[in-house]
Design brief:
single chain, alpha/beta, 14-stranded mixed β-sheet, 22% strand, binds zinc ion
Length: 472
Amino acid sequence: MAESKLDDALTAACGDMWINSRILSDVTYLCDEFGNRFAGSGSEWRARAFILDKLKEYGLSNIQAEPCTYTAWKRGTCSLELLAPRKRQLTCVSMVHAPGTPPAGLEAEVISVGQGTQAEFDALGGAVAGKIAMCTLGSPVGIPPLHRVGKYGRAKAAGAIAVIFPTEEPMQLIGTGTVAAAYKEIGTIPAVGISHETWRYLLRQQELGPLRVRLDVINAFAPNTQTWNLYGDIPGDGSTDDYILIGGHWDGHELADAALDNALGLFTALDAARAMSSRLKGKLKRTLRFVALGNEESWCVGSTNYVDQHASDLDKLAIMINVDALSRYSNPQLRLGKRPDVADFCRKLITEHKLPIPMMASEWLPGSSDDWPFLVSGVPAVTLTGLERSAAAQALGRGIDHTHADTVDKIDDTRARISAMTLAQFLVRLANAPGRPEKLARAEMFKRLEAAGHKKELSDQGRWHPDSVLGK
Ligand SMILES: [Zn+2]
């Protein structure tokens, strides 16, 4: 397609997204009608049909629902009682993929380990063994956020028998999240979340004497549960087999509606697909594949399986764009993995076409979202995020993600429309770019991660698997 005609089509598509955006109405319907889409739930099953209908309605071709199996987790009951120095029943929720306590419950001393950094565990020496470690979900200011699974791994290594994860943000938010290291694994010691206020109460009691608690948790596991990657294409002009994968997870945590994490990111991308499909079908060099990835929240089940199921032709995947967090807190930014060549490629496109996409200098360890399985398999992978917040806000934790407060009313509709248009602009330029970053070997990617100093953290998280993306 001639450059001027392409610009006209893109201009029309952007106008369509600005005026006729379906993002807010789709996310509202999805969350209000089906709920949180927690992996293994009826909500997830019903939402699947809705998403497949949208792929069709929005004009995509080659629509597929590719199954993947994993061990699902069912929330049971959870009780935390302070026994000393005062007695009080406290409110808590179990972390996802955490096992229950023994049938008779668990009574033990609680030891505070700050934010669960290695230095904080080291400072306590052997004092954590046999106790319940309490470390907040926040991170020291100014460093990339520490993931809860790394803290959980360090607690286990120090001999803790359970973990309490306080949320650092106030207003009685309780964060949930998986403690599984990989999607075929489950947690090995109980772990519960409590609010900022309950945490502060416990810190005050600790000044009176050692904290002793009773924990009773019942959860269940369901092996061989199925989820799906749902996708559809805007076919290219046939001049190459290469394609671009634009993906975001469609599942969510079950304490809330998971509106921002990640119905919003996914439907921002699908609105770009809607506006582009009729205008650009068969006209771009590379095919654009829009994917709703299954069960990211229990450790990237869908994206891990996509990489595995498409292993024989991964070299055709020119670039993977993860849209987890797109439109969430800020306009889009590009977050890059450990690939200077991918950074250079994107910078050139952004500069040449004057795209309004700031690139983040990334010390971020990409690992807890769907770009990870692609990145470690050597596929060029980036994240287009709306996660920019002040360093102080970021240090407190995830904001409202994974809490009861992640609801549709938090969506900024203007920002969502801007994000969809920005994504579409980026996609058109990526699809027609003259070259592309190469696919690297998996061993090379792990070598780079080690050279960049990430082996320890990934090992703490149980995700240093150079030989297998499946975490076996
Ligand atoms: Zn997410």
